[in-house]
Design goal:
The longest helix has 24 residues, at 143-166. A hairpin with an 8-residue loop joins strand 1 and strand 2 (36-42). The chain is of the alpha/beta class and 204 residues long. The protein has a five-stranded mixed β-sheet with strand order 3-2-1-4-5. It starts with 7 loop residues before the first helix and ends in a 14-residue tail after the last helix. 39% of the residues lie in helices and 15% in strands. Helix 2 packs across helix 5 (143-166).
């Protein structure tokens, strides 16, 4: 069973008269390469998705198992991304906000209200425009945000694995673009690829 405490925020806003409530989260704010991804998910009230939790607390295998279950259970879901070039041209906070709003705008059912993971809703060049509440550690406190965190994380990881075929020397399938020792060693050996975030690597 999905922990009933995970529905507290959804129930609160349904009681206030909101119908379609989506959870929204992003993945990939910290890596040195690749896009930042975001997902938005509208779940049916009290949907039962056993094991649903913050994507960072789940194994890769568990995330992959939950991915299609969330897609099949959701009333609506969407994934969006902002590329490394745009992250460099703006900033990572703005890119995160843009990715989340793009995901919400892509939902087949327009959300009346959004539960957003984190404590920021605007950057220098982008902001969340859907009516919303910010929830710190929302991906472990809201079922809808947890579902979004899994869709965003799995989608980004899959993209990095595919992109590793294009740039095999960087081993993106191993580190997913994060700043591991292996990744830094390969950067010193091969330099930057077209998908690296130059603004994150000014001192390399």
């Amino acid at each position: 069973m999905t922990d009933t405490a995970m529905w507290e925020f959804e129930e609160r806003y349904r009681a206030l008269g909101y119908g379609a409530i989506c959870g929204c989260d992003e993945a990939g704010a910290g890596p040195l390469a690749g896009p930042v991804y975001a997902a938005a998910v509208i779940l049916p009230p009290e949907a039962d998705i056993p094991g649903l939790n913050d994507s960072k607390k789940l194994t890769e295998r568990k995330r992959e198992q939950l991915f299609p279950i969330i897609q099949q259970t959701a009333i609506a879901w969407a994934v969006a991304r902002v590329e490394a070039e745009e992250i460099d041209a703006t900033d990572i906070l703005s890119a995160r906000m843009k990715a989340m709003q793009l995901a919400m705008d892509a939902l087949s059912v327009k959300p009346d209200f959004a539960l957003i993971d984190g404590n920021r809703d605007k950057g220098r060049t982008a902001a969340i425009t859907t009516p919303h509440e910010l929830i710190v550690q929302g991906d472990s406190r809201s079922a809808s945000i947890a579902a979004a965190s899994i869709l965003a994380k799995v989608s980004r990881d899959r993209w990095m694995v595919e992109t590793a075929k294009e740039y095999p020397q960087y081993r993106f399938d191993k580190h997913k673009g994060y700043g591991t020792k292996l990744h830094y060693d390969l950067l010193r050996q091969y330099g930057l690829s077209p998908i690296h975030r130059r603004s994150f690597l000014k001192n390399l």
